[in-house]
Amino acid sequence: MSTLITGPDGQNRCSWCGDVPEFLPYHDNEWGYPVDDDTRLFEKLCLESFQSGLSWRTILNKRENFRAAFAGFDYREIMKFTDADRERLLNDPGIVRNRLKIDATINNAHRMAEMVEAEGSLAAFIWRYEPPAEELGEPQTASISPTSIALSKELKKRGWKFLGPTTIFAFMQAMGLINDHAIGCAMREKARKNRAAFTPPR
């Protein structure tokens, strides 16, 4: 199976972004570009945990509903959520109504506060786990890596939930710690240039 498709502008792209229309703008404008904004990183961790066992299309189509339901993924606001908020979320048809994942998101907001206190920012912690070049093989051939295992293990040790190694690998792909655009995808070079101009927070 080819890893590339031809986009509407005639440029090649990763084949997965042609599966459904909403994937193309996500692929072109978000996926694989480095992120150092704590809110975006926290949101992505939360959404990836909600995706567990589901398709990314489901989560992407509900993303704005998730943002509204979870206070824009401001961890300081989520930390204030009460049992009434939990029930509100469980009755919100615009999100994934899974009690364990909802509870994990609220728990992870508290862990996020601890992370910022201990490390200065989530971004400073996350970017320590950018994989070494020798760990990366052919793009889009892996769903887990030694680094995603290590990061998942450390987050679990710190009390974070619903963030296994496969979930973390997908997070790393999306947030630009890995440039996993297919060879020949027009966005691979764009992602490379973005990373070259990006200074990881410390």
UniProtKB/TrEMBL annotation:
GO molecular function: DNA-3-methyladenine glycosylase activity; metal ion binding
Signal listed as a keyword: no
Keywords, alphabetical: Glycosidase, Hydrolase, Metal-binding, Zinc
Transmembrane intervals: none
Domain of life: Bacteria
Keyword Chloroplast tagged: no
Binding of Zn(2+), residues: 14, 27, 181, 185
EC number: 3.2.2.20
GO biological process: base-excision repair
Protein name per UniProt: DNA-3-methyladenine glycosylase 1
Organism: Roseovarius albus
